[in-house]
UniProtKB/TrEMBL annotation:
<dbReference type="GO" id="GO:0006355">
    <property type="term" value="P:regulation of DNA-templated transcription"/>
</dbReference>
<dbReference type="GO" id="GO:0000156">
    <property type="term" value="F:phosphorelay response regulator activity"/>
</dbReference>
<keyword id="KW-0804">Transcription</keyword>
<dbReference type="Pfam" id="PF00072">
    <property type="entry name" value="Response_reg"/>
</dbReference>
<feature type="domain" description="Response regulatory">
    <location>
        <begin position="4"/>
        <end position="120"/>
    </location>
</feature>
<dbReference type="InterPro" id="IPR001789">
    <property type="entry name" value="Sig_transdc_resp-reg_receiver"/>
</dbReference>
<dbReference type="InterPro" id="IPR001867">
    <property type="entry name" value="OmpR/PhoB-type_DNA-bd"/>
</dbReference>
<feature type="modified residue" description="4-aspartylphosphate">
    <location>
        <position position="53"/>
    </location>
</feature>
<keyword id="KW-0238">DNA-binding</keyword>
<feature type="DNA-binding region" description="OmpR/PhoB-type">
    <location>
        <begin position="133"/>
        <end position="229"/>
    </location>
</feature>
<dbReference type="InterPro" id="IPR036388">
    <property type="entry name" value="WH-like_DNA-bd_sf"/>
</dbReference>
<dbReference type="InterPro" id="IPR022305">
    <property type="entry name" value="Response_regulator"/>
</dbReference>
<dbReference type="GO" id="GO:0000976">
    <property type="term" value="F:transcription cis-regulatory region binding"/>
</dbReference>
<dbReference type="InterPro" id="IPR016032">
    <property type="entry name" value="Sig_transdc_resp-reg_C-effctor"/>
</dbReference>
<keyword id="KW-0805">Transcription regulation</keyword>
<keyword id="KW-0902">Two-component regulatory system</keyword>
<dbReference type="GO" id="GO:0005829">
    <property type="term" value="C:cytosol"/>
</dbReference>
Length: 229
């Protein structure tokens, strides 16, 4: 069987449609109609990717709650929100809770499949990192690529998969500006500009929680971002 995907969607027709589409691509699919059943299954066995709607049955914010619960179980599990809600507030809320991507249900199935494939490619690239690149040392920053773990001044930084890969991309070449397209390509992301911005803000907050003076990720107006040497 292929990689294990979990779909959490309360509308039966949509749930079946997505499940069938992923199964046809060779994925092993588990589908859940509500947060409690999904969480019970996840506590027993985590999927390799979770696709979650925000409104779940009688819980208008159930997907947000489930995302936070999943993040408590695993920082690395890729999570995608797939929802009819497209407000900036919901997008930012979803990314702040630790989602790797946020998509609306008007997305085409081929596009959705491409985004999922891109996430899995990123997992594979990290898993296949050459031994010489298993550790990245930038002074206060230490990245362990084999374990997908980051430390800042000796303290662990709880980065999601997407956040880890973006920090890795920026810090590999300190001082070099990465525009959004380069960040997406290097980090195997297929996201829009607003999503990149939200990820960068979240990364900064996580480092600042350990070090209020953290200022290594610099915005370069009109150009992108760089890791200050």
């Amino acid at each position: 069987m292929g990689r294990r995907i979990a779909i959490v969607e309360d509308e039966a027709a949509i749930r079946a449609n997505y499940s069938d589409a992923f199964a046809r691509q060779g994925y092993e699919v588990s589908a859940y109609a509500d947060r409690p059943s999904a969480l019970a299954a996840f506590r027993d066995r985590l999927p390799e990717l979770a696709i979650i709607d925000i409104g779940l049955g009688n819980e208008p914010e159930g997907g947000f709650t489930l995302c936070a619960e999943l993040r408590a179980l695993s920082q690395r599990l890729p999570i995608i929100f797939l929802t009819a809600r497209d407000s900036d507030f919901d997008v930012v809320s979803g990314l702040r809770l630790g989602a790797d991507d946020y998509l609306t249900k008007d997305i085409s199935l081929p596009h959705l499949l491409a985004r999922v494939a891109a996430l899995f490619r990123r997992v594979e690239v990290l898993a296949e990192a050459k031994p010489t690149e298993e550790q990245l040392d930038r002074g206060d920053l230490k990245l362990d690529i084999s374990r997908l773990s980051a430390r800042w001044r000796g303290e662990s930084v709880p980065l999601t998969l997407t956040e880890f890969w973006m920090v890795h991309t920026l810090s590999r070449h300190p001082g070099h500006v990465k525009n959004r397209d380069q960040l997406m390509a290097d980090a195997h992301l297929v996201v829009d500009d607003g999503t990149i911005t939200s990820h960068i803000k979240r990364i900064r907050k996580k480092f600042a929680a350990l070090d209020p003076g953290f200022d290594r990720i610099e915005s370069v107006y009109g150009a992108g971002y760089r890791w200050k040497a």
